[in-house]
Amino acid sequence: DGGITQSPKYLFRKEGQNVTLSCEQNLNHDAMYWYRQDPGQGLRLIYYSQIVNDFQKGDIAEGYSVSREKKESFPLTVTSAQKNPTAFYLCATSDRGVVLGQPQHFGDGTRLSIL
Amino acid sequence: ELKVEQNPLFLSMQEGKNYTIYCNYSTTSDRLYWYRQDPGKSLESLFVLLSNGAVKQEGRLMASLDTKARLSTLHITAAVHDLSATYFCAVESHSRDDKIIFGKGTRLHILP
Questions:
Q1: A103, B33: Cβ pair inside 8 Å?
Q2: Measured between CB atoms, which of B6, B96, B100 is closest to A104?
Q3: Residue B59 CB coordination number (10 Å)
Q4: Is the separation of the CB atoms in A20 and A76 below 8 Å?
Q5: Using CB atoms, which residue from B92, B99, B104 is nearest to A40?
């Protein structure tokens, strides 16, 4: 089945540690996004990528890094510089192609906590 | 900078009642999306609104878009408990940089 796979579902980070959240898709979508969700804050955009080997910062990129070496994959690294990483992280994709106005498809999320 | 505001942020209502959730945005756009999120779950696409005056309906939910007023509404008719969830609107930047900004969400609680 086509879809978006985020892993792990739960992740714990120690002080000073970098952790990487995986996002893989087989929808053949060009655009991929990372959002952070905190209670009562809605979704805030961390990074997004419209095409392989290119990505842009969102509104809260500090303390995070990404790569887009393959169309199918858009991993997010939460670095030790991100002092408050506890949140629900959602990966999304969209088919930008020729037809605009396509909704985003979301993965099931990764819940990150500090040990 | 594109900003998206939803109101109310929390809504508790009785089954059978009607209500409307509002989504205002700050810059020109003609692409607006509504999503539903159940507790602890991911987001599910409900509606895509792509032009001024667009109206979409699915069951007891109806969404509309007024691009001149920069306003979208999500209307709930004769609410049922199964509609309890958090509803988000999201607006796509008109600069076509693929940036999509979400509102804070409206947490809807429907009492039996």
A1: yes
A2: B100
A3: 10
A4: yes
A5: B104
On the 0-12 / 13-18 / 19+ scale of CB atoms within 10 A, A15 is exposed
The single residue listed with the structure tokens 């089954």 is: B15
Residue A1's pLDDT is 57
Taking the C-alpha atoms of residue A95 and residue A38, their distance in angstroms, rounded to an integer, is 26
Angle at B75 between CA B81 and CA B2, to 5 degrees: 115
Q: CA-nearest residue of chain B to A41?
A: B104
CA B107 to CA B63: how far, in whole Å? 17
CB of B3 less than 8 A from some CB of A? no
Cα gap B73→B66, rounded to integer Å: 9
8 A C-beta contact, residue B43 and residue A106: yes
pLDDT, one tens digit per residue, over A37-91 is 998 778 999 999 989 999 999 989 999 999 999 999 999 999 988 889 999 999 9
In DSSP notation, B41-95 reads S-EEEEEEE-STT-EEEETTEEEEEETTTTEEEEEE-S--GGG-EEEEEEEE-TT
Instruction: Report the relative pairing of strands B61-66 and B71-76 from DSSP bridges.
Output: antiparallel
